[in-house]
Design brief:
heterodimer; A: Rossmann fold; 9 strands; 37% helix; 25% strand; B: 234 residues; mainly alpha; MetI-like fold; 0% strand; binds adenosine-5'-diphosphate; binds magnesium ion
Amino acid sequence: MSGWVSLSGVTVRRRGRTILGPLDATLNGGGLTILMGPNGAGKTTLLRVLHGLERVNTGDVHWTDPKDADGRSQGFVFQTPVLMRRSVLDCIAYPLLLDGVSRTQAREQARAHAAEVGLTVNLDQAVTFLSGGEKQKMALARALMRRPRILFLDEPCANLDGRSVKEIEEILHRIKAGGTRILMSTHDMGQARRLADDVLFLHAGKLVEQSNGDDFFRSPRTAEAKAYLKGEILL
Amino acid sequence: MNSIGEGLWQAARLVVTLDPDLVEITALSLRVSLGATLVASCIGLPLGAWLAVNRFPARRFVIAILNALMGLPPVVVGLIVYVLFSRSGPLGVLGLLFTPTAMVIAQVIIITPIIASVAHQAIRDLWADYHDLLISLQATRLQRIKTLLWDGRRALMTASLAGFGRAIGEVGAIMIVGGNIDHATRVLTTAIALETGKGEFDMALALGFVLIGLAILVNLGLHFISRTERGARW
Ligand SMILES: Nc1ncnc2c1ncn2[C@@H]1O[C@H](COP(=O)(O)OP(=O)(O)O)[C@@H](O)[C@H]1O
Ligand SMILES: [Mg+2]
């Protein structure tokens, strides 16, 4: 099976507990893949493993295209946006500064990316003054600065109001249309239905079900997924 | 009561007329304490930052030592420096005892742990906030340190100011290693001790005013830094 990344025998153990795996999976969706599962299922851990933020105890991650393997061609949006002690514009520009782009140029591009994600606030204010939705848009704009081939998002809408959620989802649609692969975790069922081309369903650190979005929601195959969709696994 | 009022008046006059002795003493105080702050910052700030971002086996031990050194009584530091630099001491040949240099050395020993400790805490907190982002963006080790130092610059300034505040008001160590020699090693705090002992309250008070003024300036500086930090004006 040819996918863009595959995991074989991946386990992550922390403090004597296996929090992820053993996991064997091949991701082959080209569009937006949703990582679903209750709290503590291992969604964050899996995203971090793929992005190279988390050390695996066994197994390995294989990228089909070496270009995808480079962390610089991957963007990551954390569940809680990382706020640098800088202005909004300088926060967004930061990845390009690391790449040696001049500050003027980096800020210029940051301005363009801010507009792209609909961040219409005063960009010279400190980032801490932004609302939750605006902070998340800042993080999204920053993750897009290096024009990533793959974008990881960890529950980007977890603490947002309905309007911000809708805005973020629209942006994600546009990013996807631009050819960027998206892997995003959520435990918001409605959001998953709206966005998912493919679904990975995790439960207790294991990959329980993998299918395309329509199939998953119409006819889940496993007992866990059925229970989750019926709202019986809360958490 | 009256003599205190008189003393205050005299003191104000000495300050306003820029009395030469007062100016000389104040200048030396600033020179010694600023010099010590500069040297201690060059050691303490990188040390603190380095301790914050590097994990190594002896790290906890070094931090414990640092905290212990923070509590060192200045008099004891003075005594140790005195013994080291006294004529028969291991560093006696340098002939530094009773010079401003010896005073700077003693103050460096006193305030480096403070500066390192404040810097360590600040950079550690910042590193906790930034860690995932910097790793995600594949910042090199050098880029990480540069980012932390730059974004933590206000906290680092606070650390240095805290060190300066401690140095300028310190009397025990510099009294011992400087000897409070007129026109050579006399600084604000040692002069105050001397003038008070002699019953020269007007001069003592004048020196005290200047010292309080400097302390207020330091605190205003600290306040200003923390306010711009809270006000999130970067
Ligand atoms: N560093 C860690 N040390 C110990 N346990 C951890 C660590 N990171 C995550 N866990 C645990 O692993 C499980 C999976 O976590 P996570 O991947 O964050 O789940 P999810 O994102 O699906 O809610 C949780 O039970 C969590 O408490
Ligand atoms: Mg999570």
